Structure formats: C-alpha cells, structure tokens
C-alpha cells in the first residue's frame, strides 16, 4: 500500500504543487518570525551583556519606582566612592553619571534617534568603559565631549565641530572624539555623548555631590557575588550593590517584556498564515479524495481495508508536509532577513543586529508544518477510508454529507454572538478573543450554506453564457467553493480587523483631543526613550504675544500607594488653561477613575526613594491618553536630577493668526532643539503614526497569507479543470471558443474571490467593532480602505485564474472527449 501511495504521489505531483507551496509559505512565515524573534533576543542580550561585561559590581540607589526598560533610578552620594575603593577585593572603582543628553546639529536642531538619548561622564578606566575612542581623544577640558559614530554621522558632525547638547538646557560643546561600542557605531538605537566628570556633574545632576552609580572591578580571584556582599556591608540604607551579571539580567528581563510582545505579535501573524495554509491544503485533499472516490472503491473491491486507504492518504499528506516544511524552513531564514530590514526601516529595531542562524526555529517550524498538514488532511482521509466498494460503479463522485452543518453552525454562531456581546458589555478583551475564535469556526462551518445564495446572486450579474456556466459550476459544489474561499476570507478578515482598529484609534485620539484639549498648537518632543525638552520652553512660549496660555507636561513613573503608576508632571492650574481639567487647585490632581476624593492622603514614592504623603488637591474627569495622576512640578523637582517636558500645549489669543503663531512658537523652540510644532490635526496624526507604521508591517506580512490563499484558489481551479476535462471537451465540441473557456474559469475564480473577500470584510468588521468597543475606543469604519480591500480581493481572484484558465483553454478537444 505504501508503494502504491508513493506512485500516486509521483503521478499527481502537479496537482499537489499548490499544497506544497502553501506548506512552504506557511512554514517559511513561521520560521522567519521565529528567526526574527531569536535575532532580536540574541542581539539585544549581546549588546546589554557587552555594556556590563567589564563591571563586576555596581553600587546604586536601591529604590525602584518604574517598570519600563531603561528607567533611571535616583542618585547616590559621591562620598561613597572612597569607602567603596577601600573594600577588600576592589581593583578599581569609577563614578558613573548618566542622564539625558540629546546631541544637536551645528545649527542647534536635535538629531533624532530611535532610542534613548544618553549622556554621561567619560570613564577613564578602559576596564570599566565599554566605549572605545575610534577617532580623536577623550574629553579633558570644560566644554569638550565625545560622541558615538552613528549620531555623529546622522548629524553630519566631525572632530573639532562646535555644536550643542540638550541636557535639557542647551550647552555649547566641542567634539574631540568619535566613539564606537565594540565594533558597532552605537549601542542599539541610542545616542551617547560623554563629558568630563566635572561637566557631567554640572550639567546632568541637580545636586553636584551625587553620582548615578559606582562601577566596580574586582581583583583576580574575587567573584562579583562575594564582592557585592562585602560592599553591601559598608553601604548605608537605600544603597545596594548588585553584580554586573545580575544587572545585565535585570535589563534583559526589562527588555524581555517588549520582546514578548513582539514575539506574540509575530506569532499571531504566523498562526494566521498557517491557518490559511491549512484550509488550502484541506481543500486540495478534499478535492483529490473526491476525484479518487472510484479509485478508492476499486481498491476496496480487490481487498484493501479502510485502514489502508486512510493510511495511504495520511502518508501522502505526511510526505507532502515534510517536503514543504523543509523547504519552508530553509526559506524562513531569507524571509527573516527581509522582515528584519522591514522592521528596521519602520523604526522597530536597531539596524546593527546580526541575523541569528540558530537551528532551533527549524526544529519548531518543520514539525509544526507537518502536523498542520496532517491535521488539515484528517477529514479527507477519513472520508476516503469510508468509501464503499459500491462506489466503484459510479461514473462520478457525488458531494455528500453536511446534514449536521446547519444545526452545528447555528449553535456555534449563537455561542459566538453571546460571547462577543458579553465582551462588549464587560469591556473584556479576553472574552472578545474567545468570541472571535468561535465566530471564525462558525464562519467555516456555515460557509457552504452561505456560498450557494451568495454566488447565485453575484453570478446572476455575470454576462453571457460564460457567466452562467461559472455561476452553475460554483452552485453545484458549494462546499468546494467555500473551501477555496475560506483561506482568503481569513486573510482579508485580519487585514480588515487591523484597518478598522487603526482608523478607530485615530478617531479616539481625535475625540480625546477635542474633549480635553482646548488649545490650538502642541509642541511635541516626539520619539521615545527619555526624549524631551527643557521646562523653560513653557515660559518662553507663554511670553509670546499670540499666546493666551501655555502649559508644559512631562511623563514619568512613581509608586502611588505602593503601585507603579504613570504620572504627569505639570502645574495643574496652568495646565487647566489648555486642558479641560475643571478647576484644579495647586497640588496633586487625580482623575475620578482613581476613586480618590479631594483631601485624601496619597503616599508617593519618588525616583530617588523619598516617600511623601500628598493630599489630593482636586479631581478631574478622565481624559483618554492622559495620566490619572498629575504631580506638581514643585513636588517632583527635588527628587530628580533632570526634569523634562514631553509636550507644551498652547492656546492662542482670540484673533491670532494660526500660521503666524505657529512660526513664532517654532522660533521660540529653536533653542530647545526645534521639537515639532503641530496644529491639532497634525498632533492627532502624529499620535497615530506608530499605529500606521505597525499597520504597514501587518499589511506586508499578511500579504504572504493572501498569497497562500490565492495559491489555494488557483490550485482548486486547476483541480476542477482536471476534473471537468470531459465537460470542457464537450463545450469545445459544441462550439465554445478558447476565449469563452478562459472566461468561464475567470468568472468562476472571481465568484470564489468575491465570496472570500466579502466574507472576510464582514467578519473583520464585526470583530473589529467588538475589539474597539470592548477596549472603550471610538468605532470608525474606514470606507475607502475597505473598498480598496474589496477591489484588491476581486482583482486577485482574476489573477489566480490565469494559469488554470490557460490550461483549460489549451486542452485538445479529442483528448478531452476521450477522458474517462
């Protein structure tokens, strides 16, 4: 039986080509996403490890009030340095000062980078300094800095250039050295400038007799763990000693949260592609089994058992899955390289990370590809095993079964509707996810029932005899029509879902801006990773004659009653002039969502570890995208080394010309690195830009799933052409031209694609509405993009029919009439 299966596989290799491609592409996507995830993890782990490889122990502030990667702790007393150096086992100890310092071009405009803008002191001991001077020398005099090669290149800066560093106030400097981080031009996506120790104390610390930490090198034979214990014994309360390995692991774990999100996102897209591939494979084998019904029945007549028929189909599927999975696994590395470049171009990863060539993605992707292929073929294999010997007397296969489909679909659909309704009412995204899975299953189960009326209605609009023939062909096998369309339906549904999500997010931001922001302009630092500008900009903008009110706002984290919370740093009274905060008093302001009333004491732990109890001075109604806690600048300033604003909200005086006011604000912002000055629409657009970038990545990655779906449609049509060889020959014999045969196949493909695309848009719209409503956002249905999706889906159906239509038209009439 195995020998017969191998012969059958060889004889039908052209018919299985589409399934092979589906497995290959699905596994390539999975392997590519796994390789990309490993690349990000290995690269970031390596970079962080290099940053701390020379540090055996770090002495730092013990307070931790943030859960974001790269969040800085409070400073420690510089007087601890002699005490640290005196501990047995310390070979070298250097003070480390770190803060925010953004380099500018020679014209004073900030150099934009993807990650944190870091500044610090130049560590003179090379054993404790991961940076190396590639050109020039170390800073020695006041006003001298060294800068990483990447930032210098981006800012067109060279040795000897005079420029500025925003700390956040503008400091004039001279570049005396160009740095590299090992062989890399920078550390990940960051920028780095280093001052002399005295300049770093002056510019980066609010209290000069402090340092950020102390880096310690152990003597030979002394482990970091032992030395950290000795140091802890001599350190005061609130200061801790941590080994370099633990410090690196801590930072890796912090970044790991981001990596887990990226991996989950990639895994979802890979799962979509594999699901699309599974439906394409299932449909192909279902057709092949139906076409080979008579053959299976003849095997039963000569003594083959049901188990042997079943095993034959599964062996065929296993070999197909293994071949496709191996090819897909190899292709995954090339796809990972393309995805890495795409992520880098979109600003989602540093460009210096080398691609990981670990074999572990293959060990996962290949078995998954084989298992998915087998699972997709189980139902057709079982159907083949149930073929009766009497089927050998039939001239053609008959589509049977499906009597349980309507009640099963109704039950699953009702459960999905109930769960989705519950998710919207409870605002629970987990319930929405469960309901989405049930909705997808219901769509698959009920697909054949919907295929007949849809293709019948749509087919009635097709012109001529070829249109009527195409309509009848889709109507006589609704299960096959639905099977071919399901894979496309899933891909289009996911694209529609993300499109609606992005559009709804934009509408939500617009609503929040309209409900909360009463101003006209926003000065936005943009970017991420500690980007910001000096709070002095608030005063400079407020002094302009066109401006009625201006209020700066910084974003930070603190522990509120023991819990890490995002907080806004601003003057609540001034902020109420541009945001609708009611009538806040001078003091801590909280939203009504916190459940706190005016006068309630709130325990606040600041970044330096200090704890204060602040009474709630006022409350305000919640504002979307805005923190529930506003801490006054006066309360925040003593506890941080640098204070940064992320935005300045501006309200103009009545009669002020918007364009003139915008130029005036831009001139005032020039000395602060020229952050973006945006009108309200531009501000909303900028807030949604990251989502649009992410959506572009989703579109590009899901294009592979659509390609798999179209391959499935083309394969289904090719098999249908082979099945209808006699029928096509009869059509040619009675006068049908080759062009009419081609048109029939093209119309048939168009009907299948329209069914899949329309079903996907409908499914994606419903699930998008549930997701948006459960998340508490504003639902917005973007009609132009959805119209484009429908048009592209229909056009793709025509493209999928090119090869099957050409093959059908080229069938010789005599050969076709002689076909059995």
From TrEMBL:
Primary localization: membrane
Annotated keywords: Cell membrane, Membrane, Transmembrane, Transmembrane helix
Family: Belongs to the ABC-4 integral membrane protein family.
Membrane-crossing segments per the record: 264-289, 309-339, 359-383, 404-425, 431-451, 481-502, 696-721, 750-771, 783-802
InterPro entries, per the entry: ABC3_permease_C, Macrolide_Exporter_MacB
Protein's name in the database: ABC transporter permease
Taxonomic superkingdom: Bacteria
Xref: Pfam families: FtsX
Lipid bilayer topology: Multi-pass membrane protein
Limits of the ABC3 transporter permease C-terminal domain: 268-389, 700-811
Localization per Swiss-Prot or TrEMBL: Cell membrane
Keyword Transmembrane helix: yes
């Amino acid at each position: 039986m195995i020998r017969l299966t191998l012969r059958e596989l060889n004889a039908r290799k052209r018919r299985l080509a589409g399934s092979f491609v589906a497995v290959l592409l699905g596994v390539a996507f999975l392997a590519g996403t796994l390789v990309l995830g490993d690349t990000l993890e290995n690269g970031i782990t390596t970079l962080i490890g290099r940053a701390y490889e020379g540090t055996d122990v770090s002495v730092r502030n013990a307070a931790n009030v943030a859960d974001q990667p790269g969040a800085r702790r409070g400073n420690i007393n510089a007087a601890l340095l002699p005490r640290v150096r005196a501990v047995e086992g310390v070979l070298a100890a250097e003070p480390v000062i770190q803060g925010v310092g953004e380099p500018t071009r020679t014209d004073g405009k900030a150099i934009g980078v993807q990650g944190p803008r870091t500044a610090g002191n130049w560590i003179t001991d090379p054993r404790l300094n991961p940076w190396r001077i590639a050109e020039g020398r170390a800073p020695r005099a006041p006003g001298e800095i060294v800068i990483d090669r990447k930032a210098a290149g981006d800012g067109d800066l060279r040795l000897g250039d005079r420029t500025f560093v925003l700390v956040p106030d503008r400091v004039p400097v001279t570049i005396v050295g160009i740095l590299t981080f090992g062989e890399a031009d920078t550390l990940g996506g960051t920028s780095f400038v280093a001052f002399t120790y005295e300049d770093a104390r002056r510019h980066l610390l609010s209290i000069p007799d402090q340092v950020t930490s102390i880096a310690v090198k152990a003597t030979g034979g002394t482990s970091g763990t032992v030395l950290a214990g000795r140091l802890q014994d001599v350190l005061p309360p609130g200061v801790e000693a941590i080994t370099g390995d633990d410090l690196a692991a801590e930072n890796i774990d912090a970044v790991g949260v981001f990596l887990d999100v990226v991996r989950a996102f990639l895994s979802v897209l890979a799962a979509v592609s594999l699901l699309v591939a599974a439906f394409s494979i299932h449909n192909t084998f279902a057709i092949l089994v139906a076409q080979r019904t008579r053959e299976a029945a003849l095997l039963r007549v000569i003594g083959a058992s049901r188990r042997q028929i079943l095993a034959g189909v599964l062996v065929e599927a296993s070999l197909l899955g293994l071949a496709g999975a191996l090819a897909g696994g190899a292709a995954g590395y090339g796809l990972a390289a393309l995805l890495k470049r795409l992520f880098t171009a979109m600003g989602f990863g540093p460009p210096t990370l080398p691609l990981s060539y670990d074999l572990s993605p293959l060990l996962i992707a290949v078995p998954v590809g084989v298992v998915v292929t087998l699972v997709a073929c189980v139902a057709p294999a079982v159907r083949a095993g149930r073929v009766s010997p009497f089927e050998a007397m039939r001239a053609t296969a008959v589509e049977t079964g499906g009597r349980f489909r309507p009640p099963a679909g109704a039950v699953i659909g009702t459960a999905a509707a109930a769960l989705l309704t519950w998710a919207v009412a409870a605002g629970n995204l987990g319930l929405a996810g469960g309901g989405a899975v049930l909705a997808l299953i219901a769509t698959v189960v009920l697909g054949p029932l919907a295929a007949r009326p849809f293709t019948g209605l749509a087919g009635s609009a097709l012109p001529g005899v070829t249109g009527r023939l195409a309509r009848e062909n889709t109507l006589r096998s609704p299960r096959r029509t639905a099977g071919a369309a399901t894979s496309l339906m899933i891909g289009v549904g996911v694209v529609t879902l993300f499109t609606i999500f992005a559009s709804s997010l934009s509408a939500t931001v617009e609503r929040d801006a309209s409900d909360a922001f009463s101003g006209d302009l926003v000065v936005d630092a943009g970017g991420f990773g500690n980007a910001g500008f000096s709070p002095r900009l608030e005063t400079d903008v407020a002094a302009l004659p066109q401006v009625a009110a201006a209020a700066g706002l910084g974003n930070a984290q603190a522990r509120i009653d023991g819990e890490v919370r995002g907080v806004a740093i601003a003057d609540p009274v001034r902020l109420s002039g541009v945001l609708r905060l009611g009538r806040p008093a001078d003091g801590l302001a909280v939203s009504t969502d916190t459940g706190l009333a005016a006068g309630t004491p709130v325990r606040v732990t600041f970044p330096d570890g200090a704890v204060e109890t602040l009474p709630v001075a006022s409350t305000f109604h919640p504002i979307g995208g805005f923190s529930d806690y506003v801490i006054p600048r006066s309360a925040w300033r003593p506890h941080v080394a640098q204070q940064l604003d992320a935005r300045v909200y501006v309200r103009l005086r009545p009669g002020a010309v918007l364009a003139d006011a915008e130029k005036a604000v831009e001139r005032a912002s020039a000395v602060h690195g020229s952050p973006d000055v945006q009108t309200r629409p531009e501000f909303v657009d900028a807030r949604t830009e990251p989502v649009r970038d992410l959506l572009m990545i989703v579109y590009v990655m899901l294009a592979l799933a659509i390609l798999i779906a179209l391959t499935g449609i083309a394969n289904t049509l090719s098999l249908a052409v082979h099945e209808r060889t006699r029928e096509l020959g009869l059509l040619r014999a009675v006068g049908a031209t080759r062009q009419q045969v081609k048109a029939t196949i093209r119309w048939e493909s168009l009907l299948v694609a329209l069914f899949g695309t329309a079903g996907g848009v409908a499914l994606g719209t419903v699930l998008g509405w549930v997701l948006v409503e459960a998340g508490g956002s504003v639902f917005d249905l973007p009609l132009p993009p959805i119209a484009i999706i429908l048009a592209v889906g229909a056009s793709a159906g025509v493209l999928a029919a090119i090869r099957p239509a050409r093959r059908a038209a080229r069938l010789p009439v005599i050969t076709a009439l002689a076909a059995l």
